[in-house]
C-alpha cells in the first residue's frame, strides 16, 4: 500500500481503532513506584503519526502530556555519542540485551568490571547520563531538554517538577544501581549529581505529536525532515535504532520484533516512540502497562498498524 493510500486509510479508521483498543488498558496497570505517575488515567490512549511528507494524524488522547521516562534514554545516548564519541561511550556500556527487567541489578555482578549490558536499561542509562557534558546537573539537563526541543520542532517539552521530585525522593533501586556502578568504578562521576540528571531527563514532559516528530528525525537518519539539516550524525542514529530493536521494549523486545518489527522505545509513564525507517515517526500514550513495563494498549495498537500497513523491517 502506498503511503498516500495508507494515510487516507489511517484518517478514516484511526479514531475508531483507538476507541476500540482502549479496552486493552484493562489488561494492564498504571505504574505506581514513582508516586506521581499513579495519577495517570488508566483508560487513556492516544497516538500521533508524523509522515515525512509533513502529514500528521492524531487520535484519542494524543494531546495528553506525559513524561518521557525511559524514552529519554535513546536521546541521552545520542547526546553522549555526540559529546564524547563512540569509543568513550562503549567503554562504559555494552551492546547486548539482558533479557532481565529494566531496573535489574543481576547482571552487574555476573560480569567484570560490572559494565551495564546496554544503554537502555536503567544501569546503562545512569552511566550515560554521567557522560553528558555540562557544568552542573541543571546545565546537563538543560542541554538534554534543548536537544529534545530541537528534535520535536517545538519549544514545548519541559521538565515536570512534580514527577522529577517524586522520583528523586523514592528512587531506592536506581540509587542502589548507581552506588554499585560507582563502587565498580564504571561510574566516574559522583552518584547524586548523576542521578539528578537522570531523574530530570526522565521527567521531561511531552505530547504524542512531539514524540512523533522526534521519531521522524530518527526515521530520516538524523536529518531534519523539512530542512535537510543534520541534527544527529547518521552513524549514531543507526546505533540508537539498533538498540531500540534489540532492547527498546526491554525483555519483551524479541516478541515485539516478531509481532511489530520496527524500532521502538517505551517509558514507564506509558509512552512509546516508534518509527518506520524512511517513512514516519509515531508517538503513543497509554499509561496502563503490561507485566514487562510497556503500554499494553499501545503495543496492541502498534501491532494492528504494523500488520495492516506491512511495516515490519524483517
Ligand atoms: O528509572 C526509572 O525507573 C524510570 N524513571 C524510568 C523507567 C522506565 O521508563 C522503564 N520503562 N518502561
UniProtKB/TrEMBL annotation:
Homotetramer. The keyword Ribonucleoprotein does not apply. This is Glutaminase. Keywords: Acetylation, Hydrolase. It is an enzyme of class 3 (hydrolase). One of its GO terms (molecular function) is glutaminase activity. Its EC number is 3.5.1.2. It catalyses: L-glutamine + H2O = L-glutamate + NH4(+). GO terms for biological process: glutamate biosynthetic process; L-glutamine catabolic process. The gene is glsA. InterPro entries: Beta-lactam/transpept-like, Glutaminase. Pfam families: Glutaminase. Substrate binds at residues 70, 122, 167, 174, 198, 250, 268. The keyword Phosphoprotein does not apply. Belongs to the glutaminase family.
Amino acid at each position: 500500500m502506498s503511503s498516500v493510500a495508507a494515510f487516507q486509510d489511517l484518517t478514516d479508521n484511526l479514531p475508531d481503532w483507538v476507541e476500540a483498543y482502549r479496552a486493552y488498558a484493562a489488561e494492564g496497570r498504571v505504574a505506581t513506584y514513582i508516586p506521581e505517575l499513579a495519577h495517570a488515567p488508566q483508560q487513556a490512549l492516544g497516538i500521533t503519526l508524523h509522515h515525512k511528507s509533513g502529514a500528521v494524524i492524531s487520535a484519542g488522547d494524543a494531546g495528553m502530556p506525559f513524561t518521557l521516562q525511559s524514552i529519554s534514554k535513546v536521546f541521552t545516548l545520542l547526546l553522549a555519542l555526540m559529546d564524547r564519541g563512540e569509543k568513550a561511550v562503549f567503554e562504559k556500556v555494552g551492546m547486548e540485551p539482558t533479557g532481565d527487567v529494566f531496573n535489574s541489578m543481576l547482571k552487574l555482578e555476573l560480569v567484570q568490571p560490572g559494565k551495564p549490558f546496554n544503554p537502555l536499561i536503567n544501569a546503562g542509562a545512569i552511566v550515560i547520563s554521567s557522560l553528558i557534558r555540562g557544568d552542573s546537573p541543571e546545565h546537563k539537563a538543560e542541554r538534554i531538554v534543548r536537544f529534545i526541543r530541537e528534535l520535536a520542532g517545538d519549544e514545548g517539552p519541559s521538565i515536570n517538577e512534580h514527577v522529577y521530585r517524586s522520583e528523586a525522593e523514592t528512587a531506592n533501586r536506581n540509587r542502589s544501581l548507581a552506588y554499585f556502578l560507582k563502587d565498580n568504578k564504571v561510574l566516574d562521576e559522583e552518584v547524586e549529581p548523576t542521578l539528578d540528571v537522570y531523574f530530570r531527563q526522565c521527567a521531561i514532559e511531552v505530547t504524542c505529536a512531539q514524540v512523533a516528530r522526534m521519531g521522524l528525525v530518527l526515521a530520516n537518519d538524523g536529518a531534519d525532515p523539512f530542512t535537510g539539516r543534520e541534527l544527529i550524525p547518521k552513524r549514531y542514529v543507526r546505533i540508537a535504532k539498533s538498540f531500540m530493536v534489540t532492547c527498546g521494549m526491554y525483555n519483551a523486545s524479541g516478541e515485539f520484533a516478531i509481532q511489530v518489527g520496527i524500532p521502538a522505545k517505551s517509558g514507564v509513564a506509558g509512552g512509546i516512540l516508534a518509527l518506520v525507517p524512511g517513512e514516519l515517526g509515531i508517538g503513543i500514550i497509554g499509561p496502563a502497562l503490561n507485566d514487562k513495563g510497556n503500554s499494553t494498549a499501545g503495543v496492541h495498537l502498534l501491532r494492528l498498524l504494523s500488520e495492516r500497513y506491512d511495516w515490519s523491517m524483517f
